Amino acid sequence: MKPHYLDKANPDVYAAMRGAADLVAKAAVDAGLSRLLVELVCVRVSQLNGCAYCLDVHTTKLLAGGETTQRLGVLTAWRETELFDEVERAALELAEAITTLPSAEERLAIEYRVREVLSDAEFGALSWLAISMNAFNRVSITSRHPVRPHRA
Question: Phi and psi dihedrals of 145, rounded to 5?
Fold first, then answer.
């Protein structure tokens, strides 16, 4: 069975998603979030969802933006290292909670913790970023977007 690319099957719907993603990116810039932090969150959400296509896209962007292979390599175990600063840790915790949807009590506890670190603008932008990335993961997973080898 060949893949059914949702983005090609319904280009107007996909264009609307891209438009929303552009607004999310603007909110991130307006909140003062670094490009590396944005890509770090995209990679972590994609790891949790198992989206190979989005992992490829955002890992490439992260490395091109100057992220280290060490931090990328330990991203799945970020809580076990001191390699991520307070804002990055809060952003990753928030993105994980939005992606995995723990119990309401756990989500509230996480929100209290991360709001001690993040401004309202950062919290909002990072929340929308995680929500948007989750949606794009689902489009790529459902569509079975292929990961092609990078050219050297």
Answer: -60, 130
Alpha carbons 120 and 50: distance in angstroms, whole number: 29
Answer yes or no: are the C-beta atoms of 99 and 134 closer than 8 Å: yes
**Residue 103 CB-density burial (10 A; 0-12 exposed, 13-18 middle, 19+ buried):** exposed
The answer to whether residues 97 and 107 touch, using CB atoms and an 8 Å cutoff, is: yes
Q: How confident is the model at residue 151 (pLDDT cuts 50, 70, 90)?
A: confident
DSSP 35-70: HHHHHHHHHHHHHHHT-HHHHHHHHHHHHHTT--HH
Structure pTM?
0.95
- Percentages helix, strand, coil for the chain, rounded to the nearest 5? 75, 0, 25
Q: At what angle do helices 35-49 and 120-143 cross, to 10 degrees?
A: 40
